[in-house]
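User: Let's play a game. I give you a shape written as tokens, and you guess the letters that built it. Ready? Here's round one.
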């Protein structure tokens, strides 16, 4: 009496496949997360430029609030950053706009913190949590 030949994975083959998958995941997950964070930062910078264009166009109206859609980043969907127009002072050239991450959102602990853009074109970042803000060029994706 002969047994029919059955094919299956051995435990060794399964362990090797799992080790390869774990190694790939160890490199892929952090890379994916940094890509998502970079995308959110680009959304915030783009939203600031859109809002600045709106404020410049409505300069004679004395804009103090941004209309719906321009007051968040991304423009549609769940907001990751909230935008607001800050009052004019001597240093900002007439207005300043900030994009602050949501308190419980995915960017709440981002080292770039709050993005700022003023009428003179000065870009900046503020991070109230730990004060160690990276270079503006890193946050604004210009490096």
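Assistant: Ready! My guess for every position:
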């Amino acid at each position: 009496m002969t047994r029919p030949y059955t094919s299956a994975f051995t435990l060794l083959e399964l362990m090797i496949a799992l080790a390869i998958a774990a190694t790939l995941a160890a490199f892929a997950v952090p890379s994916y997360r940094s890509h998502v964070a970079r995308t959110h930062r680009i959304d915030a910078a783009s939203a600031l430029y859109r809002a600045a264009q709106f404020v410049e166009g409505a300069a004679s109206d004395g804009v103090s609030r941004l209309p719906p859609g321009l007051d968040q980043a991304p423009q549609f969907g769940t907001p990751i950053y909230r935008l607001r127009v800050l009052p004019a002072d001597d240093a900002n050239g007439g207005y300043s706009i900030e994009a602050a991450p949501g308190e419980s959102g995915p960017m709440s602990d981002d080292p770039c913190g709050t993005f700022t853009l003023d009428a003179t074109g000065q870009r900046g970042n503020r991070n109230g949590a730990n004060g160690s803000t990276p270079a503006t060029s890193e946050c604004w994706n210009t490096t």
